[in-house]
Amino acid sequence: MIISTRISKKLIPIRDDLLVQYQSYADIKGRSSIDKTLLAMNCVVHLLNRAHCSSYNDINIVLKREFFSSIVINGRKQRKRVSYSSFRDIIDWLCDEHGCNLTIGGGKVEASFSTNLRSNSVLHLTDQVLSLFIPLIDNKYEKVENVLKVKDSNKKLITFPTTHKTDFIVASMDNYNELANNSVVTIDGERKFLQVSRVFNNSTFNNGGRIYTEGGDIQCAKVELAKTVCINGKITSELDFKSLHPSLLADLKGIAMDGHDPYMIDLEGYTAEVCRVMAKLGVMCAINCKSKAGAISALTKAINKNLGWKELLNLGDVPDIKIPSSKVINQLIKHNPQLGDQWFKSRGIELQVVDSDIAMYVLNHFTDKGILLIPKHDSFIFDSDHIEEVGLVMKQSYLKVVGSAMNCRVEEK
User: Are 413 and 242 in contact (CB under 8 A)?
Assistant: First the structure.
């Protein structure tokens, strides 16, 4: 959830209308002052507008008092704080008076809040609420203010000093978001509004740094749905860095992989497609975990989460008895001897900084030219007219960040 106390002028009439409706409810309930209510209502209207722009009926909201106590935007604490009690009361009012439903930790709450408040809460919006935004024909996504975030080991946002690097990242994200907000992106014919932010972890700019898209569901879209993306009415293509993290590890070590596929393993009873998925999960676990035992445990959880085992079993794509995760990890180690000293060292979060720096250079190049690219994990979606230039710039950006591109491979998905 994004806390924003700023809303555009076009949203002020909607906010004022909601304030008038809410005030009579608040007077009866003896709720908080108008000053606190105004900031909280701005925050709610901001969230409702984002839901409307993205055609969502559900929005994630955080119901933790500490989340509201210290708001950090681009590394700076904000003087204006949203009252948690006021925000909670407005959500309560939306449920009581407008028929919205609140789900807290999997349990449906019709009107009031549970005392056991959690962060994974979802507010289901009614057409009555969303219809307030229909008159805004030229509606655009409210620009994300907090485009650069640093979290501590507990995933809490922290402040950080302003440097040339932070200014560069903020400017890059702001420029991209301005272009995205003035572009028309559709997925399966439905318009989506995209904004990006960059998130670093563990209180350092040396961990994480991934670029996340907010809105549009494109980063998580299945392959079939991603192929329906259009940008400004043009059909799109997608170029992907193949085996990006293994390639980065090899290039950083100065080792040539000579086209070697790190995911090409053979598991008895499994189709080649399922083997490849399991190999990718295994490599990810081996690179991210501190020990072999930890990687085996993580892979077991990843397989259970990401593979629909019963469905695959019915299709005959997997055997009746699962292969132990330890055997998958052992095959990957044997298959990739050149990366042997890179396993089980928690390198993944460091590599994220490298691949995200590469992505930012790619995005900046095209943003400066007014051409929108959509980042999607290790790939980019873009107007097909630019396929040759995108492939070239991806390789150039890889070389600029890593210092070597002998293992860099770019392919169309």
Answer: no
Instruction: Give the β-pairing of 374-376 and 379-383.
Output: antiparallel
pLDDT tens readout for residues 272-310: 999 999 999 999 999 999 999 999 999 999 988 888 888
Contacts of 100 (CB under 8 A, 6+ apart): 91, 94, 123, 124, 125, 126, 129
- Distance from C-alpha of 353 to C-alpha of 355, rounded to nearest angstrom: 6
Structure tokens at 114: 């549970």
CA dist 184 and 205 (Å) reads: 33
DSSP 58-84: EEEE---HHHHHS-EETTEE-SS---H
Task: Please give the Cα distance from 175 to 371 (Å, whole number).
Answer: 12
User: pLDDT tier at 208 (50, 70, 90 boundaries)?
Assistant: very high
Burial of 229 (0-12, 13-18, 19+ CB in 10 A): buried
From CA 5, how far away is CA 188, in angstroms rounded?
A: 33
Length reported for the chain: 413
pLDDT digits (tens, 9 = 90+) for 328-342: 999 999 999 988 888
State the amino acid at position 270 in one-letter form: Y
Give me the pLDDT at residue 114, please.
34
Per the DSSP assignment, residues forming a β-bridge with 212 are 197
DSSP 198-251: EEE-TTSTTSEEEEEEESSS-TT--HHHHTT-EETTEEEEEEEETTHHHHHHHH
Give the DSSP letter of residue 6: -
pLDDT in tens, 356-378: 999 999 999 999 999 999 998 89
The one-character DSSP state at 264 is -
What is the value of pTM for the model shown? 0.77
- Percentage of the chain beyond pLDDT 90 is 47
